[in-house]
Amino acid sequence: MHIRKYDHDFSRRFFLEQTAKGIATAGVLGPLWPMIGKSADISKAYPDELMSVDAWSKGKVKSGDFVTADNVDIVKDLLDPVAYMQIKTMGRKIKIVPTTRDVTRMYPHEHLEATLRNQGKAKFDANGNVVTLDDKPWNGGNPFPDAKTGAEVAANLTLSWGRHDNSLYCIRDQEVSPDGSLSYQYDFAWVEQNTQARTDGKVFPGAEDKLRFNTVLFTAPSDSRGTSYLSTWYYDQRKFPELVGYLPAFKRVRKFPTNQRFEPIAAGINFYLSDGWAAGDPMLTWGNYKVVGRGPLLGAVSQTWYGDHPNWERPVHGGPKGVTFYDANMELCPDVVVFEAEPVGFPRAPVSKKRVWVDVRNMMFIAYATYDRRGELFKSLETHFSLYEKGDKKLMDGKHSAWSWTACMFHNVQDGRMTRFEQTKSIAGGITQGYNVEGYYEKYMTEQALQRLGT
Known about the structure:
Layout: H1 10-20, H2 32-39, H3 53-56, E1 66-67, H4 81-89, E2 94-96, H5 109-117, E3 122-124, E4 130-132, H6 150-159, E5 166-176, E6 182-194, E7 210-220, E8 228-234, E9 242-247, E10 252-256, E11 287-299, E12 316-317, E13 325-326, E14 329-342, E15 351-359, E16 364-372, E17 377-387, E18 389-390, E19 393-394, E20 403-412, E21 418-424, E22 426-427, E23 431-432, E24 434-435, H7 440-444, H8 447-454
Parallel strand pairs: 2-14
Antiparallel strand pairs: 1-2, 3-4, 5-6, 5-21, 5-24, 6-7, 7-8, 8-9, 9-10, 11-14, 12-13, 14-15, 15-16, 16-17, 17-20, 18-19, 20-21, 22-23
């Protein structure tokens, strides 16, 4: 009799053992990052059962198949609880695509280069902030690509949200009511400017104590046009960002309390500033980070860009009126670490904890959930990512194909409301998306800019 060393349950046992130890180190058959450094191919780090849904399910679900209510129980263990509920009871479906083996297709090129260049050079200082081994601010890429703790995983998400030195995302938002009707629609720009932890290793002039500037600017409908918010993040993750905003009705810029980060940014929206990138608050205003799970998961991390559509719009389906969910391609992510954290800096926070599912291949979250003060599931966030290539269509962020998020869905499971964001080529007001563009700070991220844009 031939006994297989890596039988179907080998990875399951391995992940259970690692979770029990609170360890998040990537790779099952061997360390992941040395392999990525040599060839960018993850195949030798995982057994066959983790490299395709076909092998994992023993052929019951295959690449090209749709997961629906009829077969979702086969892959229930590969879904976060909200995604499972959506498919099982709300008419959602997802399409299975092959697992990405080439990690260069899961990063902006410069961010991956910085991650490889600076690998092994990060640590936490006495205050809990990420610094280099010689105690200087972090100088680019994921500080902990082979993260071993929940805090290290969270640091990878926090220091560079979009993983470009700056980004402008054109977002079309549609709010879906529990009855399936559209209740609100907004166009807004989300603009990020990293001042530290940049891929070029430089510090943005005059912002030596800052981490980023972030502006949210609404351009439609007419009663919201010109409303904007500017967050100025400090590098010290113990400090709350400064938050100012321009409200057209008052025709002035005003300062807002910065620790009230669990409120909608506009009427009807499920999204809070705290939710951004599953790391919307300085990481040291949250605490008790711990690894609570590890294993494979289905995630929308490839083939989700609709660049062949005029404004990159994507199809919708499901729910009472067929418009609740975006279409999604999902692949088997072979190694996903799950961590939890509690809002220790927010005495009146309406949430008791967050849970975040992170793909260890690129240390980016693919699912996120918050829980209310009773410990009941409150709200989920599912985000779709992709290299911006489809057929003969391609978007560049310089010399390389762009990589970013393409869509996300915020589902309040307690009241049934769905917020859907899709990243579009342009939005009302003539604003177009961009990465690593000179002049974004002056145009969008000063109080004078907010005043000018609002009027």
